[in-house]
Design a protein that fits this description.
The protein is built from ten helices and 18 strands. The strands form four sheets. It has a seven-stranded antiparallel β-sheet with strand order 2-1-6-7-8-9-10, covered by helices on one side. Helix 4 crosses helix 5.
Length: 427
């Protein structure tokens, strides 16, 4: 489970910012709290609110950048030759509106904990990076029986300490490590199990990017596991859809034609509907279904994976194209221990103020992103927010009403569209 994600100097976030899923000592919804090893009390939900262009998406992009770099950087760097990978070093995007940060490094750090099945070990992993490569990288861990973290490795431009890794593996890392490469990523390539374990934690998380056309997204390689081969799996998806749309009674799947034998096999998916006053059925190309239906189909394999692995699902604008009650049902899935047996977590951004409901979320599950007049984004929790009188927000307040009144910040600075007042029609 994710305990904490912190980052600095990435896109609109100039300064240190922390998203913390640790439960605070507040009294509402104690059933949301998940007890883990080392007496951690963690939360399954983080809902992020804020105005358009405030930086909500950049929060998810920061985690996505960290994940991509961890998974891929073993192929970065090295001398130019025929054997070099075509994968290029992915440079970070710093905050560019400040001279001091424009050329400074960006940093990314996570604290996460294994499941009890995997030993309940807590890890602290992070790195700083600039436009030329990795500046610093560290990995520390703490077992259930320990109160302090122990170093597995540390590196910077002047030091390489691999004391927590076997001697043989140390030599392999020293020989192969490039400036652009993370030790965790390289260690996975070298089959060092301790480092592969960290890489795998990132792989088990999912980040939903609906910037791509939805029909391309769902008809790519993200069909639900077993969906093509198994009628049982397809019926499970039908049951999932039945919670909000009972008109779909099945799916028909067939491969699309391709003359390229090296291209990954793709499939056409049709939804099956029952005809009115008849036992006959009719098929409709899935891409012609509503945008909301397509989005829920796209979310299914992500939900399937994180619930199975106990990972973290990041969704940007979860509310987009979905009915509020459907969004609520999606959130409750992560709050229901009978469904969420492996303690998966959901982090999502939204504009729907109705989700600011003290009957649904705890104050420490509600987060805001606000952008200053200088263009600097900041993230903060409702549980840590102080009102104008210097007092914390009460659990019996109307969060939605007060948010829309601007009490918590993180809303648009609204002005009239005055530019249209002078517009004259020539007609």
């Amino acid at each position: 489970m994710l305990i904490q994600f912190s980052f600095k100097n990435f896109r609109s976030f100039r300064d240190d910012n922390i998203l913390d899923l640790s439960a605070t000592r507040i009294t509402e919804h104690n059933n949301h709290i998940i007890k883990t090893g080392n007496e951690n009390s963690l939360l399954p939900i983080a809902a992020v609110f804020g105005a358009n262009a405030s930086g909500k998406s950049n929060l998810l992009e920061a985690f996505k950048y960290m994940t991509t770099y961890v998974i891929s950087s073993f192929a970065y760097g090295g001398e130019d030759d025929e054997k070099r990978s075509t994968i290029e070093f992915i440079k970070p995007t710093p905050f560019i509106l400040d001279k001091s940060s424009k050329d400074a490094e960006s940093s990314f750090e996570v604290y996460f904990i294994d499941s009890e099945y995997d030993g309940g070990t807590t890890y602290n992993y992070g790195f700083t990076i600039n436009q030329t490569g990795v500046v610093e990288e560290w990995l520390n861990y703490r077992t259930k029986s320990r109160t302090k973290f122990k170093k597995m490795f540390y590196r910077n431009n002047d030091e390489l300490d691999l004391s927590g890794i076997s001697s043989k593996s140390q030599e392999n890392i020293k020989i192969s490590l490039e400036k652009e490469t993370l030790i965790v990523s390289l260690g996975t390539k070298l089959k060092i199990s301790k480092l592969k374990h960290i890489r795998d934690w990132f792989i088990n998380n999912e980040i939903a990017d609906f910037g791509l056309p939805i029909e391309d997204y769902i008809l790519s390689d993200r069909l639900p596991h077993g969906f093509v081969e198994s009628e049982e799996i397809r019926q499970n998806v039908v049951k999932y859809f039945a919670s909000f749309d009972s008109s779909i009674i099945g799916f028909y799947v067939k491969p699309t034609d391709s003359n390229d034998s090296n291209r990954k096999k793709r499939f056409r998916v049709d939804s099956i509907h029952k005809m009115i006053n008849s036992d006959e059925t009719v098929t409709i190309p899935l891409k012609l279904e509503s945008a909301g239906t397509l989005k829920m189909f796209a979310l299914y394999p992500l939900l399937q994976d994180v619930l199975a692995a106990g990972g973290v699902l990041f969704v940007d604008e979860l509310n987009s194209k979905l009915h509020p009650l459907l969004v609520r049902a999606f959130i409750i899935t992560f709050l229901n221990p009978e469904i969420n047996k492996n303690n998966a977590q959901l982090i999502f951004t939204t504009h729907d103020s109705w989700q600011l409901d003290n009957n649904l979320l705890r104050r420490d599950e509600i987060w805001f992103v606000e952008k200053s007049d200088e263009g600097i984004s900041t993230i903060y929790s409702l549980a840590d927010f102080f009102d104008d009188n210097g007092e914390k927000i009460r659990k019996d307040e109307s969060y939605e009403k007060n948010y829309l009144l601007g009490k918590y910040g993180a809303i648009p600075n609204m002005k009239d569209f005055d530019m249209f007042k002078e517009v004259k029609s020539d007609v």
